[in-house]
Specification:
CATH topology of the largest domain in chain A: Gyrase A, domain 2
Number of helices of chain A: 6
CATH architecture of chain B: 2-Layer Sandwich
CATH architecture of the largest domain in chain A: 2-Layer Sandwich
Number of strands of chain B: 6
Radius of gyration of chain A: 17 Å
Strand content of chain B: 35-45%
Strand content of chain A: 25-35%
Helix content of chain A: 25-40%
Order of helices and strands of chain B: EEEHEEE
Oligomer: heterodimer
Shape of chain A: globular
Largest interface: A-B, 14 and 12 residues
Shape of chain B: globular
CATH class of chain B: Alpha Beta
Number of domains of chain A: 2
CATH class of the largest domain in chain A: Alpha Beta
Distance between the termini of chain B: 26 Å
Number of helices of chain B: 1
Radius of gyration of chain B: 15 Å
């Protein structure tokens, strides 16, 4: 079997070094299971998928529901992203949908997940993101698809920072950008 | 200059997140086979070009990826209204 190598694996050491100062914590959370669900939110199928997830699909734009280690993020009025740990069994979701109109697709390889945490996490992201990231408007339970440094990302707030879901082919670019933008938070004060 | 476009789903976002889709409410001909070449060309290529309010399609391609309509003033770039596909063009003064 081929060896699994995550898109930002080459940045692990530099992420670690950047995390030493205490202002920031950068890391890749590789190989999370990501499942794209498309279904009419008013349909019985949506209800059954919610039951299989153990939480309803969030219908308000830009919101997430979290239960244990599984997050369901709103991507569109009939589209959601389920993010679970590596090896998360999503066949239950496919079974819940059955033959009805909709889709449950494994998109784990499409994006990798970068963790941007620490007290300056939101300041760092603000260098390349036009959204208001203040925790009072963009805290736990929110999500957004937007541009970060001209790369398409999904932003998911966490307790002490944010998850940045980025396309695998953009991961190296975004990792370089994050490390570059982080410089001012790492340099010793003069 | 950058427009701030209020996506009807995601709220106000940078213009860079959107793609433009041209004039809205251009109905597909009921019976395309019955059209003359000239009528077909008119349907395909001829669009209004008003100075003032213009109903146009936008796609929030870097966000929720939904198409929606916007009523934009072509002279001032002011966006008077946005509305979802299937909703009627709002009346603005």
């Amino acid at each position: 079997m081929a060896e699994c190598r995550s898109p930002a694996a080459a940045f692990a050491d530099r992420f670690d070094a950047a995390s030493k100062g205490g202002a920031l914590r950068l890391a890749e959370l590789p190989f999370l299971t990501q499942v794209d669900i498309r279904v009419d939110p008013a349909s019985p199928a949506a209800k059954d998928i919610g039951a299989a997830l153990g939480m309803p699909l969030p219908v308000a734009p830009g919101t997430t529901v979290i239960s244990g280690d599984v997050t369901v993020a709103w991507l569109g009025p009939d589209e959601w992203l389920v993010i679970g740990p590596e090896g998360y069994r999503f066949d239950l979701l496919r079974k819940a949908l059955g033959e009805r109109h909709g889709s449950v697709v494994d998109v784990s390889a499409q994006r990798t997940t970068l963790l941007v945490a620490g007290p300056r996490a939101r300041d760092l992201l603000a260098h390349g993101c036009a959204l208001d990231l203040h925790p009072t408007v963009f805290g736990l339970g929110r999500c957004a698809q937007t541009m970060l440094a001209r790369a398409q990302v999904v932003l998911l707030p966490r307790q002490d920072g944010l998850l940045v879901l980025v396309r695998s082919s953009f991961a190296a670019y975004l990792a370089e950008w994050l490390l570059d933008a982080a410089t001012e938070y790492l340099a010793p004060r003069l | 200059m950058m427009l701030l476009i209020p996506c009807p789903w995601c709220g106000p976002r940078d213009e860079a997140e959107f793609h433009y889709g041209g004039q809205a409410h251009v109905a597909y001909p009921e019976n395309p086979a019955a059209l003359s070449d000239e009528e077909w060309a008119r349907y395909l290529f001829f669009r209004d070009n008003p100075k003032g309010a213009f109903a146009e399609r936008w796609s929030h391609s870097a966000g929720c990826r939904r198409w929606f309509n916007a009523l934009r003033d072509t002279a001032t770039n002011e966006i008077h209204a946005v509305y979802r596909v299937g909703e009627p063009r709002p009346v603005t003064s």
